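Run folding on both entries below.
>entry_1
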Amino acid sequence: MTDWKEIISSTVNRWVDSKGTPIPGATLKPLLVSNAGEDIPGERFIDFLKDHSDIISIIQRPGTDILIVPIQKYELLVENDPSLKLRQDVYKAFTWILDYGTFCYDPAKDMFILLEEESSCSDGNIIVPTRSLEDELGLRKDFISLVDAQYEDELNEVLEGSGKVVFHNFSKTLAKHKLFPIWQKHRGQDTLKRIHKWSLDVGVEFKGTWTTSSKFQSMIEKSASSYRKDIFSSLAHLSQEDLARISIPLDIVQKLFKK
């Protein structure tokens, strides 16, 4: 019997060790077939890969090929796509410091919801660990240890302040020294690691819908803008009688004229 787990693990690790990037699904599939000497079982490649989610991590996003990395190197997905962003509700759930309440994940709606009380998290939904002030300070101190020594004293002094305002001042100081992009990448990797660990701990699949690429979002927005222009252009060729027969809900009309 073919040991697919070993073949997948060795093939993915070999690629990542050599290239330093995630391996696209379109590249991985023929490599697996070649290494195994037989076709991939099942009808859908993605389902086959998900059956081995204990050794690999997969991310799916609309309009792009799937990306695969060894489960212990999930942060490579951020390094591979610097434009990768977390969906707003996901970002808030894993980075916000709450004075009260808690975030709860609803698998049915695929949404992270802020609740006033932990007890309000319904059966089947999953509580997200609350982020503390100490957690966020620790993350920034870890980052300071990685930057050039000339900035250490100034950044550490900023963190000696009190309250959440230190985070704003920290970001301003980073921007002054042009370190903010590096910090964003560092924080993104840390957040993605924590989300991935949480998903494994609670038995929830890390979903591609939790992330988006700003490059892809820009493409969608441009496409939508072009589509609106095409609609108005087409309407210009209709007669008054034709237009009178068209019934469009008011909220849709408002959206069309919004931009």
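>entry_2
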Amino acid sequence: MGILFQIAVLLITLLIGALIIRNSKVIPTHKKRKAALFVAGLAIILGLLAGYVPIESYLYTFPSLKTALEQTASTNLSDEDLVVEGEGSAMVFLASEDPNSLELGVYYKDDSGWKMAGVADSTLKEQGILLEGHATYSLYYCSQTSEYYLLITDLSEKGLEIKDSLQSNFVEYNNRYIAYLGHTLKEYSVTINGVSFSIPEL
């Protein structure tokens, strides 16, 4: 749905711009080509920005997370996909043909039901390298519910032993470890293979 909305914004901008240029008595004929290029550039920019608008959350509400996933996922869900559910949100990892690639989706619920979060609602807050390059971490944040998720990737593919100060449940998935962290990261720390790391409150 997001890509269709982007295309619609682009086409509408082009159409309106073309009509304005065509019927304008202010723009000289010899400058209409530059005006057309400006409109084309503006349409592309607005189309890209439209990707950050959570249009799905305004148009669709689903009675359950399962229904939301079935209706909005780009591919059919399988046993290889992973859903990590929090208190008011869920982070979904869809498998792809490339084992090193994941498609990430974020969903949240309000009083009316479950919605698919837009790009602007699911933020990569922080990322970095751990264990001298043997692992990486990505901290995600769902702004609609103020909830955090932590993704740790094992680059060594030898397995990681992970514990944190919140006693979170880290789920292993294709050399990745994902956990729901809750609403606050005050004095949060995680220990990986006996080495402790701290993530400041964000």
